[in-house]
Every structure is written in structure tokens, then in C-alpha cells.
């Protein structure tokens, strides 16, 4: 058996942007040296999950790292809630977007050294959070990969079909406008809206973007992913779009799709 060259550490930190102590996991080389500056990959987990999702993805990072297809990096995942979270800043509550995009990376910099580059990868809820953050500040990120991102086939609250907002997706749909239904607030928290607002910056940054979704997604997220693909085409924003025939939200193809998304991030970091 090949000896693991990456390992996970688990810790807690107390931020100011949210009112609770946050659990997080970090995957890093076993021979990491405190003087070494490495890229940071923010691994954003999906709904009803936690930083433990990094444990599930770790074998993919390990395999690609050992094959030379993923560079020495700090990969970090913070536990964020679905209800009341979803990588959103709440006007009367916690600021989870600020936590992930600002306070968590600063905490990691203080612990593991300031990153020489930062990339984002996320699935489902995490895909929404990753794309939203990357499109808002494209010069800051080396790449973004979103697997089955929680995006909708519409850009205003009343354009999204009811069939596309079941369960927690309905909670997200309402929370994006802070429960007001106001289009401007909704757009500000929308991946589509941020792509439109920052299109010039995204093009100038030449941000590597991957959007991957199963064509048989049980929550209809393939319709939102295809809509986003068309918006990015309209805006002349270069991106890679993969619609995987027969694949659902999870299922047998999920492992290989996750590995390919990690490979995409690894390639972007290695060639930046």
C-alpha cells in the first residue's frame, strides 16, 4: 500500500462574523514546513454537511497529489449551516459569506502562512458559494470549480419555476432577497447577478471556471447550470461547462466528477 502523503487536521476557531465557534478541517502535506508558502484551496461543502466532507474528498486529493496532478497545497473546509447559512450574509444574523471569504482565510494565514494563491471548489450549496465569491472578486482567485451548484434557471425571484426550488432550495431562493422579494437584493446574492455585475473584471482576470452538473439532477439544478452557462456565454466569460448525461445530484458518477473538479483546480494552480 502506498503511504499517504497528505493528512487532515481538525480544529476550531471563534470568528466575529458569526455567533458560533466554527469547526474546520485542513488537508496538507505530511511534511509541511511552517516556513513554506503554499496555495490555499477553499473546499466548500454542500447542504446538510460539514467540514467532514473533506474527509470524503481526501482520497481524491491524495491520488492526484501522488500522481503529480495536484500541487502541494493547504486545502481547508469550514463547517457552515444550511438553514440560516448557505454562504449568505444575513442582514439580522450571521455573515457566512464574509466568514468563508475573509475571516476564515485570515485565520488560516495566521496558522499556516499567507497563501501564494487561492482557489475555490464546492458542490451543491458549496458550488453556489464558490461561484458567488469568485465572481465578486475574480482577481483574488486562481480558479473556481462548482459541482452541481445551487443556481436557478432565472435571474429574478418571480422567474424561477416552483419545480426548481424544493426544500432547502426554496429557503435559499427566499434568503437571496432577505425574504423581501426585492429583485436588486436577490441579484446581489445571485451567481448570475454577480457574473453580470463583474463581467469585465472576470474577463480581465482570465479566471478559470468549471461548472459541472449531472443532466439528471434530482433537484433540477442542471436547468440552473445550463442557464448559467448561457449567461456566461452571453457575457463572453470563458468557462468549461460539463453536463454529464445520466448523472444525478449524487450517485455513481459523483466520485469521478469530484476528482475531475479537483484536477481542474490542480491544473489551474500549477499553470498560473
UniProtKB/TrEMBL annotation:
Any one Pfam family here would be: Esterase
The keyword Electron transport belongs to this UniProt entry's keyword annotation: no
Q: Which residues cross the membrane?
A: none
Q: Matching InterPro entries, A to Z?
A: AB_hydrolase_fold, Esterase-like, Mycobacterial_A85_antigen
Q: One GO molecular function term?
A: hydrolase activity
- Write out the entry's keywords from A to Z: Hydrolase
Name the PANTHER family for this protein.
DIACYLGLYCEROL ACYLTRANSFERASE_MYCOLYLTRANSFERASE AG85A, ENTEROCHELIN ESTERASE-RELATED
This protein is called what? S-formylglutathione hydrolase
Q: Which organism is it from?
A: Stackebrandtia endophytica
